[in-house]
Write a structure and sequence with these properties.
The protein contains one helix and 36 strands. By secondary structure, it is mostly beta strands. The strands form nine sheets. The protein has a four-stranded antiparallel β-sheet with strand order 1-36-35-34, with no helix packed on it. It has a four-stranded antiparallel β-sheet with strand order 2-3-4-5, with no helix packed on it. A hairpin with a 4-residue loop joins strand 7 and strand 8.
C-alpha cells in the first residue's frame, strides 16, 4: 500500500510538471500575441464606436404556465402604422378579426368560427362595435354595418370618406343614432340605421391634422385638430349635430375635460407656450369654461405652482387628468390633487403625491385607487392614493404592451411571453408563451383574454387567482 502511494505521488508530480510546461508555453504564446508577432493572415476585429446595452436580464419569474384554449391564424396588422386599423376587437363573448382578407367572427371561449364577411382585399382593417352591430370600412373608404350574430350586411354606405391627402388619423365613432367617421381633419356623419351620409365638415386650417377625439353632447359634436399658426397648437371645434354647421372654435383649447350643465371645461394649451419657461419657475394649468352651444367663455380656472431648483427650468408645464370630481395635475416631481367641483381662486390642492422616479414618468390615470404611470420603456408603476406608497408591477423582459382590466394586469413581453399580474398583490400569477416579439392590446370578454401576437390570436381562460 505504501509503495503504491509513492508511485501515485511520482505520477502526480510528473503531471504537475507537465501542466506547468503547458502553462508556460501558453503564456509564451500570449506574450508573442501581445508583441504582435502574428501570422500574416491574422485580421483584428473592429471596435464599435458606441456600444449601448438597453436591457439587463434578471431572474426569470417562476409562475404556472397556461396553455391557450385555442389559437387562430389571422392577418397581421402589427407592421402597419397605428392610424390604419386594428387587428381585432372582442365584444360580448365574440372576437372579430381579419383572416384571409375577410372579416371573421369567432367564439371567444372555443375559437370556433361563426361567420365570415368580405371577398378578397376590399376591406380596410378599421372596425368597431356597438349594440350588436359591427361597423367597418372598405378600402374605398365606404362604411358598412353587419349584424354581429350572423355577419349579415345591414347596410353599405354609398358615400366615401376618402380625402385627398397622405396618411391621416382614422376612426369610427358610433353614438345613439349616428356613426361618425373621422378621416384627418374631416368629420363624416352617417345615419346609424341606414348608412346615409347626413353631413361632412372639414377644418381647413388643420390641413388634414385631426385627432381621434370626438364627443357628442346635447346636440353638439366636439372635435379637436392641430392648427398651425405662429405656434402650432391644438384647437377645439363645435358642430351642430343635425347639420354639421360649425358653431364655434377656440384655438389652443384641448379635448373636453368635462361637459356639465351646458358648459364645456377644456385645458388652455396655448397660453403657457407664451411664457418664458426656462427663466421663470412659475407654472399653471388653465381650465377655461365655454357655453357648449355658443362658445361664449363663461369663466376660467388657474391651478398654480412653482418649480424647485434653479434656471434653466423644464419646459414641461404638467399634464392633467380628471377622475370623478378629482383633478390630478403633474407639478414637477409631485402630483397635486384638487376638488374639481369646488374651485376657489388661489386655493391650494387637497393633497400632493410624490411622483415615482421624479418627473420622468407619464401619468396614465386612476385604477383601483392607484394612480398609474409609465416610463419611457413602457414599465408600469403607481402610487396608492390612500397613503402615497410607491408600487410597481414588473416582468422579466422588455415590455411590448400592457393592458389593465380592474385588478388584472396583462403584460405582453418581447421575449415571446405574456404575464398575468394581480394588481392589488403586485404579484405575477401566470405566464403564456406567445412566441412573438410584437403584440397588440390584450382583449378581454366573457372570462377570456385574447392575446394579439404577430399573425395569430390566442384565447386563454382567466384563472380565478386573478380576481
Amino acid at each position: 500500500m505504501v509503495s503504491s502511494n509513492k508511485n501515485d505521488r511520482i505520477i502526480k508530480n510528473k503531471q504537475k510538471r507537465i501542466r506547468r510546461v503547458i502553462a508556460c508555453i501558453t503564456a509564451g504564446v500570449l506574450t508573442i500575441h501581445g508583441a504582435n508577432i502574428l501570422p500574416t493572415s491574422y485580421v483584428s476585429a473592429d471596435k464599435a464606436d458606441v456600444s449601448v446595452r438597453t436591457w439587463y436580464s434578471g431572474s426569470t419569474i417562476k409562475v404556472p404556465e397556461l396553455k391557450p384554449a385555442w389559437t387562430l391564424q389571422v392577418d397581421s396588422g402589427l407592421e402597419q402604422s397605428q392610424g390604419t386599423g386594428v387587428q381585432a376587437i372582442a365584444e360580448e363573448g365574440n372576437v372579430f378579426a381579419f383572416s384571409g382578407n375577410k372579416l371573421i367572427a369567432v367564439d371567444a371561449q372555443t375559437g370556433k368560427r361563426l361567420w365570415s364577411y368580405g371577398n378578397g382585399r376590399h376591406l380596410n382593417r378599421l372596425i368597431t362595435y356597438d349594440q350588436g352591430i359591427v361597423y367597418g370600412m372598405t378600402t374605398d373608404k365606404k362604411p358598412y354595418a353587419l349584424h354581429a350574430k350572423t355577419g349579415k350586411l345591414k347596410w353599405q354606405a354609398q358615400s366615401s370618406t376618402h380625402v385627398d391627402a397622405g396618411e391621416l388619423t382614422e376612426a369610427l365613432v358610433p353614438t345613439s343614432d349616428t356613426l361618425y367617421a373621422i378621416n384627418g381633419s374631416t368629420t363624416f356623419a352617417f345615419d346609424k340605421s341606414s348608412g346615409k351620409l347626413k353631413w361632412k365638415a372639414d377644418e381647413e386650417k388643420a390641413e388634414g391634422n385631426g385627432t381621434a377625439y370626438l364627443e357628442e353632447a346635447d346636440g353638439v359634436v366636439l372635435r379637436t385638430f392641430f392648427v398651425q399658426g405662429a405656434l402650432t397648437s391644438i384647437q377645439l371645434n363645435a358642430y351642430d349635430k343635425k347639420t354639421g354647421k360649425e358653431l364655434w372654435e377656440d384655438f389652443g383649447q384641448g379635448d373636453a375635460l368635462k361637459i356639465q350643465d351646458g358648459i364645456v371645461y377644456s385645458i388652455d394649451y396655448y397660453s403657457p407656450m407664451l411664457t418664458d419657461y426656462q427663466s421663470l419657475p412659475d407654472r399653471k394649468v388653465i381650465v377655461n369654461a365655454f357655453n357648449l352651444k355658443t362658445g361664449v367663455k363663461k369663466g376660467s380656472r388657474e391651478y398654480m405652482w412653482k418649480l424647485a431648483g434653479e434656471p434653466p427650468y423644464s419646459y414641461h408645464s404638467g399634464d392633467a387628468y380628471l377622475a370623478g370630481d378629482k383633478l390630478y395635475i403633474e407639478q414637477g416631481d409631485k402630483v397635486a390633487v384638487y376638488n374639481f367641483n369646488s374651485y376657489k381662486a388661489g386655493e391650494g390642492p387637497l393633497r400632493s403625491l410624490q411622483r415615482p422616479d421624479g418627473d420622468r414618468l407619464d401619468m396614465l390615470g386612476v385604477v383601483q385607487e392607484r394612480l398609474l404611470f409609465k416610463d419611457a420603456s413602457g414599465k408600469l408603476v403607481g402610487v396608492k392614493l390612500a397613503n402615497g406608497q410607491r408600487i410597481g408591477w414588473y416582468g422579466d423582459a422588455p415590455v411590448a404592451h400592457i393592458d389593465v382590466y380592474g385588478n388584472e394586469i396583462y403584460m405582453a413581453q418581447r421575449n415571446g411571453t405574456l404575464l398575468g399580474i394581480h394588481m392589488m398583490k403586485s404579484k405575477p400569477v401566470f405566464r403564456v408563451k406567445t412566441g412573438a416579439d410584437l403584440h397588440e392590446a390584450t382583449l378581454k370578454t366573457n372570462g377570456m383574454i385574447i392575446i394579439q401576437a404577430e399573425g395569430r390570436l390566442m384565447g386563454v381562460k382567466v384563472p380565478a387567482s386573478m380576481r
